Amino acid sequence: METDVANRNRTRVENTFRVIDLMEDLRDIWRQSAPLQNLTDSEKEKLKKKLEKARKAIEKIEATI
Amino acid sequence: MSLDRVIIDELVLNLNPLQTAGRTSAETRKAVTRFADGYSVCDRCNGVLHDIEKPDICGFVKQLADFLGIDRAATTMGAREGKFAVFHSVAQPGDTVVVDGNAHYTTHVAAQRAGLNVIKTNHSGYPEYEITPESYALTLDQCKTETGKPAAIALLTHVDGNYGNLTDAAAIAKVCHDAGVPIVLNTAYSSGRMPINARELGIDFIVCSGHKSFAACGPIGIIGANGEWADRLFRLSPTHQNKNIELLGCTARGANIVSLIAAFPEVKKRVLRWDEEVAKAQRFTAAMEALSDNPGDIMQIGMRPKHHDLIRLETQLFHEIGENHRKRGYYLSSELGDRGIAGLKPGQTKWFKISTYGFSDTQLDYIINAFTEIAALRF
Question: ipTM value of the model?
């Protein structure tokens, strides 16, 4: 396999797992704040950072298409 | 076919005692995702599951043995499979096993599968249902009198699933050893929640449940043995080199064992916070019993004070509300559901079991407040 292809595929898969992992982190935030999910300011900040990281990972996947 | 769960832990507080200490962490679910394929832990296997080094199952089972105070440990598919393996190793068909009067049905079924006769000890009866060392002494004597020989093995349910009673395993182990009978401790509701050292308790065999008390997705359990019993439990096939007979070669070989490995670092930490969990259980019980001035309206069943998060309550107060409610007995689970609380059997109002394990103080306050609001429907 060409090195470029191997790197492209690795980027796709690594970022796929990255998104999945970040979504699991989100699930823990929902669980820890259930049932009302009234987040504190620091929890909101944490959540936003994870969403931003997920967006970036998705963008990296899209860039390989 | 929908595979959506009925109870979604991200949306509700789930009080089901079967499930509270089996909830997985994000780290565990991330690991499970990577090993969801069948036989996924076997990429670098040389024929023995417990010798695999990548992922490090070999090192992990040694850590498990240290954690449980046992000479040798292995994973199984659950506590019930562990009980069968122990019974099958130690006893012959027609032998007798002595078990506590609060033993789980799987203890009985495991003994039956091994061809054993079962004699149950007494418990102290309503309302505490306590299992005592004296009851084991009496039942071991009874076994010898009735069958002409000692029991082949005794089993003690460390914490039972009906009342959440914590038994005196060290004292009962001594009684069994004085009678020349080995003992297996069923820790499905204790190890992984609270610190346990089988060696210090004088226990010969231990069985554990990963999906019940080690925050693993499972199905997965642990068996272990001390001293000479370890050689007997983990004996190898005479025809297939390195294949363990009781484990049928290999047991959990996928996402289930990986979930146990991933959960283990946090489990080691959380057992050290067991006192906090007991305090929460006692606080919840006191708050529930304080919902009425009449002691019979809400009453904790089982030994007092609580030393475990599994709490059984008789709830005449909630039953009376249901008699005059348009939803009858279903009102209670409905009212709780409206408040984002799940885990009680729909229609059940005379009594129920719940677990306070793993909830934050804020969440516990929320649960107590919900029951307080529902109790006010009586007036």
Answer: 0.97
